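Good morning C.,

I know you're traveling, so I'll keep this short. The sequence:
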Amino acid sequence: MAGGAVAQSARGCADETLERQVRAFHARLFPEEYDEIYDDTVDATLRRQGINPMSADSIARVDARRTELGFSPYTVTGTTVRLATLDWTRHMVRQGRQAEVESLCVHYGL
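The tokens, ready to paste straight into the viewer:
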């Protein structure tokens, strides 16, 4: 394997490792964005109607956390918001700020 190919392969592995960290931290810090995966038929129907099936208490906690982190409240139809939180998490990890993200997860009990 030529030197350039080895370097490119190593870079690809490093990128994959970082992306796994991004996804893991994002799922921990923004679990509400993954709730629909576990929806039963009633919750799925509510989401399709634009209704958040979470309890009022859960919505308040999620919205407070997201606001403290500089994001808008969660909406069941907010794809743009989801991309913003994922981009932010990716930025933090690529900047080597994993300890800071971990600290936020611990702070919020996630």
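Safe travels,
E.
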